[in-house]
Write a structure and sequence with these properties.
Strand 8 and strand 9 (151-154) form a beta hairpin. With 156 residues, the chain is of the alpha+beta class. 12% of the residues are buried. The strands form 4 sheets. A 3-stranded antiparallel β-sheet has the order 7-9-8. Strands 1-2 form a two-stranded antiparallel ribbon. Helices cover 25% and strands 20% of the residues. The chain folds into 2 domains: 32-75; 86-154.
Length: 156
């Protein structure tokens, strides 16, 4: 079987140089039928086709086998539960005390109760900055209120 090559034509550009350009493409290739990875049936329409990235395809509305990842046919990983952060722990501690507190006291109680752990040297500064940023960004919708210099309480 002879190998076909695309026809090229030489075009003269400004400046006297010559270059080669590919001839315009002929009609687009017809759609090739593919087999669905999940149901093993033929995919006959381009609109139904969803490539999975590893050379396999599936119908767009075809659900993968229970517990399999849609993209590769691998088992789906269970979602990790998020550990509460310093802000969440601070809300819990401030809710228990019910009175305005400064950030050093809040962090001390959070660490004492084991709600959060850190290796940082200034977690109180981090908490202070986070609370101020929330008050500044959310305004009236913020969870905290600044009662006096350096002290915050939960919004009622």
């Amino acid at each position: 079987m002879a190998k076909q090559t695309k026809a090229k034509k030489t075009v003269k550009r400004s400046g006297g140089r010559r270059s080669t350009k590919k001839a315009p493409k002929e009609e687009a290739a017809k759609f090739e039928e593919r087999t669905c990875y999940v149901c093993q049936k033929a995919i006959t329409k381009p609109a139904e086709l969803q490539p999975l990235g590893d050379g396999t395809y599936r119908h767009k509305d075809c659900d993968p086998v229970d517990g399999e990842d849609q993209a590769k046919g691998k088992k789906a990983k269970p979602k990790k539960t998020r550990k509460p952060g310093l802000m969440d722990a601070a809300i819990q501690v401030m809710g228990e005390t019910g009175e305005p507190m400064n950030c050093k006291d809040v962090v001390a109680k959070v660490l004492e109760q084991g709600l959060w752990t850190t290796n940082g040297k200034t977690p109180h500064a981090t908490l202070y900055a986070s609370i101020l940023r929330e008050i500044q960004k959310k305004g009236d919708d913020a969870r905290f209120v600044k009662t006096e210099r350096g002290k915050f309480s939960l919004k009622s």
